[in-house]
Write a structure and sequence with these properties.
There is one protein chain. The protein has 351 residues and is mostly beta strands. It contains 3 helices and 22 strands. The strands form 3 sheets. A 12-stranded antiparallel beta sheet has the order 1-2-3-4-5-6-7-10-11-12-13-14, covered by helices on one side. Strands 15, 16, 17, 18, 19, 20, 21 and 22 form an 8-stranded antiparallel beta sheet that branches.
């Protein structure tokens, strides 16, 4: 076997045909297998993915890569911090040990085909979230599977912000990073399947407050994670308030039609009681609108709180239009008691 051995302080290998590079402090190239063995500050750029590690073995023809120590994988969709990984960078598949996966926030915009239809076309964002699992399989560009995993959409200071994942003091110990974090809520489950921009499913799920205290169990859980309009439960919201106590909100999204949808939400407040809300939106060539209703029976004050608000734009002809904007509350202290936005925030587009 012919072997080329290189050892210098800094080495750059370029593959012009693919625009790929490898940098390392120490590098060996096995010509027969077209294999690179790199150690010390390894940095690989290949087909849009950037990988850093303490040691890497890369098979150039296939893209198969073994990565060990302080491994960070980043592409347009995710940042992955893991202790050890066996990945095919070209196919974006492989397995990872103790992997912390941060799904990046992404922006989308809807462009109407008809210039007259202007509603609900503002730019929206897909929320970021992170997934942690001891054994995680990357099944494709946007899909992950774990026998057991923890998921949350919460940003925990300072460990789980995406910019902090790039700071070396947080790398190489994903389990410790997760244990040190304190998100407002987490979902833990088995057979967890995550498709970025689409949905998450899991079995035997436990919802935990503060990442530690279990308070809800379900044998099956499914939630929409992306921009697509898909009927189903959305991610819950959890928090605490001196006025309301422990807070838990669970929205359900109903994609009625391409141009109509509704969101129903139940809010549990340990000090006040249960709140219920419904939001209905529509968009067509003759107008657009959004209508909301909210109700809570305040068990402390022993009175009902209600709010009704919404708007409609109606186009009869290019020169004749009508507009309605209504807001009603049955008690003056509604907003002091409940806040200004008790409704679910639906980040999905009507067409």
């Amino acid at each position: 076997m012919r072997r080329v051995f290189l050892s210098i302080a800094f080495l750059l290998i370029c593959a012009p045909a693919y625009g790929n590079t490898i940098t390392a402090e120490h590098l060996e190239h096995f010509e027969k297998e077209d294999k690179y063995v790199a150690t010390g500050n390894v940095h690989i750029v290949r087909d849009g993915a950037v990988v850093t590690a303490e040691k890497a073995v890369l098979y150039n023809k296939t893209g198969d890569t073994e990565l060990i120590g302080n491994v960070v994988y980043e592409d347009e969709t995710v940042i992955i911090n893991t202790e050890k990984a066996n990945l095919n960078i070209d196919k974006q598949t492989g397995t990872m040990d103790n992997a912390l996966i941060f799904v990046k926030e992404r922006a989308y915009r809807v462009v109407s085909k008809d210039a007259k239809v202007l509603g609900l076309q503002a730019q929206r964002k897909q929320a970021h979230y992170w997934v942690y699992g001891e054994k995680v399989a990357k099944l494709g560009e946007d899909r992950f599977h774990a026998e057991r995993a923890t998921i949350t959409t919460c940003n925990s200071d300072p460990c789980l912000r995406p910019e902090e994942l790039r700071v070396k003091r947080y790398l190489g110990a994903p389990a410790q990073v997760v244990q040190a974090s304190s998100p407002a809520w987490t979902i833990e489950g088995s057979e967890v399947d995550v498709t970025v921009g689409d949905k998450m499913t899991a079995q035997n799920t436990t919802l935990k407050a503060g990442g530690k205290t279990p308070f809800f169990y379900s044998p099956y859980f499914s939630a929409a994670l992306g921009k697509d309009r898909q009927t189903g439960f959305l991610m819950p919201k959890i928090g605490t308030s001196s006025l309301k106590g422990f807070l838990y909100s669970q929205p359900f999204y109903w994609a009625i039609d391409d141009n109509k949808d509704a969101t129903v939400q139940v809010d549990y407040m340990s000090k006040l009681g249960f709140g219920k809300s419904v939001q209905y939106r529509y968009l067509d060539f003759n107008g657009q609108g959004e209508w909301n209703a909210y109700h809570l029976y305040d068990k402390e004050k022993k009175q009902h709180y209600e709010e009704y608000r919404g708007y409609s734009d109606i186009v009869f002809t290019p020169d004749i239009k009508a507009y309605a904007d209504i807001q009603y509350v049955n008690h003056r202290d509604f907003y002091q008691r409940l806040g200004t936005t008790p409704y679910a925030t639906t980040q999905r587009f009507l067409q």
